[in-house]
Q: What sequence folds into this?
């Protein structure tokens, strides 16, 4: 399926494309347009473009709108949603400590990448890594008793193996 968004993807667009590819449409093909100068292609599902279903609504960013529409319940994704919201909605920037850093990284990435496709490719690595991080935090709680008896290297090896079991795409 084709998905279309605006060129020069930033926080909401890179994260939303990642969410689409990882949790909704593994075969997703992304198209970028210079909106509003270019029309939305009829054969593509638009996201993060003003006025479309999968965009900003009721102080929610596109990432959050997609989660709601596709009923995504994954707890690590929901933590990422908080981060994306804070990084994307100016007045909420300081509500999540990581938001300023993620915004800075994605801002640099979209300008350093050779094109929008490379920006997505690199952005996916960032969102995969954040997904692994939030999964790691859950695993620390889940395996707290086992982890206390391990040395540092054993703990990290154990957690790496568990994360790779949980996350098929990493």
A:
């Amino acid at each position: 399926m084709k998905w279309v968004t605006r060129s020069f993807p930033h926080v909401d667009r890179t994260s939303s494309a990642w969410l689409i590819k990882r949790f909704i449409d593994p075969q997703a093909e992304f198209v970028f347009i210079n909106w509003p100068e270019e029309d939305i292609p009829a054969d593509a599902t638009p996201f993060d473009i003003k006025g479309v279903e999968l965009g900003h609504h009721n102080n929610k960013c596109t990432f959050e709108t997609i989660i709601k529409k596709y009923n995504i319940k994954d707890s690590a994704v929901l933590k990422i949603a908080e981060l994306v919201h804070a990084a994307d909605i100016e007045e909420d920037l300081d509500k999540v400590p990581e938001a300023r850093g993620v915004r800075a990284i994605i801002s640099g990435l979209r300008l350093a990448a050779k094109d929008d496709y490379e920006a997505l490719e690199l952005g996916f690595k960032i969102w995969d890594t954040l997904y692994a991080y939030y999964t790691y935090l859950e695993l620390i709680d889940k395996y707290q008793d086992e982890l206390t008896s391990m040395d540092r290297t054993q703990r990290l090896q154990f957690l790496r193996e568990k994360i790779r079991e949980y996350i098929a795409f990493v």
Q: What stands out?
A: The chain has one domain: 2-124. The longest strand covers residues 2-6. The CA atoms of residues 83 and 98 lie 7 Å apart.
